[in-house]
Write a structure and sequence with these properties.
Layout (H helix, E strand, L loop, with lengths): L1 H44 L6 H13 L7 E3 L4 H9 L1 E4 L2 E6 L2 E7 L4 H5 L6 E5 L2 E2 L5 H8 L6 E7 L12 E7 L1 E4 L5 E5 L4 E5 L7 H13 L7 E5 L8 H8 L8 E7 L6 E4 L11 E5 L6 H11 L4 E4 L7 E8 L3 E11 L30 E3 L5 E3 L8 E2 L7 H8 L2 H12 L13 H10 L2 H4 L3 H16 L5 H13 L4 H7 L1 H28 L2 H10 L14
Parallel strand pairs: 11-12, 12-15, 15-16, 16-21
Antiparallel strand pairs: 1-18, 2-9, 3-4, 4-5, 5-6, 5-7, 7-8, 10-11, 13-14, 13-18, 17-18, 19-20
Helix pairs in contact: 6-7, 7-8, 10-16, 13-14
């Protein structure tokens, strides 16, 4: 009897699901028919010509806004961007650019790129691209003009600052640059810290070449023999990329055939188990992984699986929390859809997705999963870990909150401009592996800041102005109140020189990164970031311990 009841319940449930699917499919078909008819009516009867491309792009954007931000439409014009996500390759001159003062500037050529070889420098203001006047062009338009088929040439005119410091009087420069197929490395820097016996690898993204680039570093560390005491894999600010590359990189540290993750989706084709397929390079060397709020997707797969397998100690701050997997689907006319096809679950069985996009607030907004609603899972060795809200590091290294002074220095390009001027006056390269911001350099930086242009007291001034207006409107203003307001205004003025000294610990690393980038490109910036990283220092200390995970293991009863 019980079996019959269960069978009937299953039959009714299946019938309910089937009916719900039919209803959903009917609603989709009905809305498509309505939309198709609406377009036809507008095309035939609207008084003016419809801007079709703009209208359809707006419709696509509106539809995709109801799902998650990782599901994206790529038109045929954007196909190169989709390819670049997977391969890191594109055709162009190889440079970061930035928009500023109605112009676009070179903010940093890539090492070995046509832009670098031609002699373009950070701070160069782009005046003309071939016959196109670049003034007022948005940076995305400039980027599109700079890119193109490998082998084609472009003529670039720039205005260069601080040419007098370089011994030249000509600040208008012309370049003819041949575009090439470019590959941006995912490992811009790795090194062996001989003092501590620690190998350090900076991985910035996950593309098809990432495992080979990481492998090169690990093989070099392995050759150190007994001198190698541990490895630090830095995944801070790594937004992810290819899942397969993440699995391969985990395979360098764990036995062949180890399960790294499972994906589950609405369609059965999205269900898959990923296991390592290579013989590990360093299966027993102590390992630390640095994460932060910018570590997402594939970097969380690497860090999370290594944490669940008790193979690595995680150091830093909580990761972003992206537990979704995307795939690409071809659409008509050479367009593509990058669509979320499933969720991934790391070895402990947990899903680290921080936001449930299927449940939105009435205003359409979404929120992170509160810690109180997360669930406990267990690592291979029995340690407690939680789902939802990203990965919680085993060793927390909280970063200081960014002060408004640092924000204004970066936003106003004071650090960027000083680095350009300093390198123009000091062309000799300093040691990349030593701290570049000495007392002398920092003093020179402080002297370069114009307090009027910095507008550091803007908040206080605005507050006084608002208070002045309110007092007048409410009828409180008189000579006595005005005098008190002037006294208050003087109290709300910052001591810029003292604050620059007080917050040097925050400002100097940014300045060091910019200086190193001028001399050694991204390689130098990464080297300076390691020297100034509190997370790296904490990782080294953890790896010096006999058992880096000892403090997080469950106590024996």
């Amino acid at each position: 009897m019980a079996g019959a009841v269960l069978l009937l319940a299953a039959f009714l449930a299946a019938g309910h699901l089937s009916a719900a699917k039919k209803s959903h499919d009917a609603a989709v078909a009905r809305n498509l028919n309505v939309f198709n008819a609406l377009v036809k009516e507008l095309e035939m009867n609207y008084v003016d010509t419809i801007r079709t491309d703009e209208a359809f792009q707006a419709a696509i954007d509106a539809l995709l806004s109801t799902v998650d931000p990782y599901t994206e439409y790529f038109s045929s014009d954007d196909a190169e961007n989709l390819s670049r996500l997977a391969t890191g390759q594109y055709g162009g001159i190889g440079s970061f650019i930035m928009e500023r003062d109605s112009f676009t500037y070179i903010s940093g050529p890539f090492e070995g790129s046509p832009a670098a070889e031609a002699g373009l420098l950070p701070g160069d203001r782009i005046l003309r691209i071939d016959s196109i006047d670049a003034k007022g062009m948005r940076s995305d338009k400039v980027s599109k003009a700079l890119r193109g088929q490998p082998g084609t040439k472009l003529n670039l005119r720039v205005w260069r600052p601080y040419t007098d410091l370089r011994g030249s009087s000509d600040s208008i420069l012309d370049f003819t640059i041949e575009r090439r197929k470019l590959s941006t490395p995912s490992v811009p820097y790795w090194t062996f810290d001989s003092v501590n016996g620690i190998g350090y690898v900076r991985l910035t993204t996950y593309i098809d070449r990432s495992p080979a680039e990481v492998q090169e570093a690990l093989e070099a560390f392995k050759a150190k023999g007994d001198a190698l005491k541990g490895v630090v894999l830095d995944l801070s600010a790594n937004g992810g990329g290819l899942v397969e590359s993440a699995v391969d990189i985990v395979g360098f540290f764990v036995p062949k055939g180890t399960e790294v993750l499972r994906t589950r989706g609405r369609a059965g084709s999205a269900d898959r188990v990923y296991r390592t397929s290579r013989t590990p390079i360093l299966p027993d060397v102590p390992l630390a992984v640095i994460i932060d709020g910018g570590s997402a997707s594939s970097s969380e797969i690497t860090a999370g699986s290594l944490q669940d397998l008790d193979r690595a100690v995680l150091v830093g701050t909580r990761s972003f929390g992206k537990g979704l997997v995307q795939g690409t689907r071809a659409l008509p006319y050479d367009s593509y859809l990058k669509v979320t096809t499933g969720k991934y679950y790391i070895p402990s069985g947990r899903l680290i997705q921080a936001i449930d996009y299927s449940h939105r607030n009435p205003d359409g907004s979404v929120a992170r999963v509160p810690d109180s609603l997360t669930n406990v899972f267990r690592t291979k060795g029995g340690r407690e870990v939680r789902d939802g809200g990203g990965l919680t590091p085993d060793i927390k290294v909280d970063n200081e909150n960014t002060t408004r002074l640092l924000y204004e220095l970066v936003r106003g390009n004071f650090i960027f401009d000083f680095a350009n001027r300093y390198v123009a006056a000091h062309p000799e390269k300093p040691d990349m592996e030593r701290e570049m911001v000495t007392d002398e350099v920092y003093s020179e930086f402080k002297a370069s800041i114009d307090p009027v242009k910095l507008k550091y007291d803007k908040v206080g001034n605005n507050l006084i102005e608002r208070l002045d207006t309110i007092l007048k409107d409410e009828g409180f203003m008189n000579d006595s109140v005005r005098q008190q307001l002037e006294v208050l205004g003087k109290l709300l003025v910052h001591d810029l020189d003292a604050d620059l000294d007080a917050y040097r610990g925050q400002i100097a690393p940014f300045l060091a990164g910019e200086l190193a980038d001028r001399y050694y490109f991204e390689r130098g910036r990464s080297a300076q970031n390691r020297l100034n990283s509190k997370a790296y220092a904490a990782a080294v200390e953890a790896l010096k311990q006999k058992d880096p995970l000892a403090a997080t293991r469950p106590k024996k009863k």
